[in-house]
Amino acid sequence: MSNYNLNDIVEGTVTGVETYGIFVSLDDNYNGLIHISEISNNFVRNVKDYANIGDKIKAKIIEIDEDNHQIKLSIKEFESLSKKSKREKIIEKGEGFSPLENHLEQWINEKMEEIDKKK
Q1: Cα–Cα–Cα angle for 62, 39, 34, nearest 5°?
Q2: pTM metric for this prediction
Q3: pLDDT of res. 28
Q4: Are the C-beta atoms of 69 and 28 separated by less than 8 Å?
Q5: At 76, which CATH number?
Q6: Of 30, 76, 79, 103, which is most buried with the most CB atoms under 10 A?
Q7: Which residues contact 110 (CB under 8 A, 6 or more apart)?
Q8: Of 17, 44, 45, which is closest to residue 33 (Cα–Cα)?
Q9: Which residue range forms the structural domain that includes residue 36?
Q10: How crowded is residue 49: how many other Cβ atoms within 10 Å of its Cβ?
């Protein structure tokens, strides 16, 4: 049984960078792979743009294979968690679209007047 659990955030050292992902050493017994699809929510053209051998990297554990001491990791899920915790909570006022509905006619009229003046 490992010291690692599903959804843990771990830090490891990059040991390899291939076209399909990043290999990470977590300790003497466990290695991880960050598949190219788990690097970013954006298109990843070149994995080497995201890591170099020897880099320290943080990621979230998304799967553990105890038999082979392999762990699948995700940078994008780690970054998603990090961003959520840093975001300020948005306080909803419960007005919905009513401010838009109430002001739309006025804004249209103001814009039309502005256009007419430019003619």
Answers
A1: 50
A2: 0.65
A3: 86
A4: no
A5: 2.40.50.140
A6: 30
A7: none
A8: 17
A9: 9-86
A10: 11
